[in-house]
Design brief:
Blueprint lengths: L1 H22 L13 H17 L27
Helix pairs in contact: 1-2
């Protein structure tokens, strides 16, 4: 049963990221190593891309997604 709880939490994080993307122009995922930041963003991007490819037009956010990952230490605060 613990596995299902983890899956539910993972799905909740994906939904939270989608909700954040619908109201903001840019998003940063911040957290410690191994918390699933990359996995959440990749799963959401693949889902949105697949919905678009399937021809689902029920939501304007169902579009192909391209993710650019930046190392915040490689740019200045002004550039971020």
């Amino acid at each position: 049963m613990k596995l299902q709880t983890n899956v539910d939490g993972f799905i909740e994080k994906i939904i939270q990221l989608l909700d954040s993307m619908t109201v903001r122009h840019g998003n940063m995922l911040v957290g410690t190593t191994g918390t699933g930041k990359t996995t959440v963003s990749v799963v959401l991007s693949k889902a949105l891309t697949a919905l678009h490819a399937a021809g689902d037009e029920s939501d304007p956010f169902y579009k192909p997604v391209h993710i650019d990952t930046l190392n915040p230490k490689s740019v200045s605060m002004g550039e971020l």
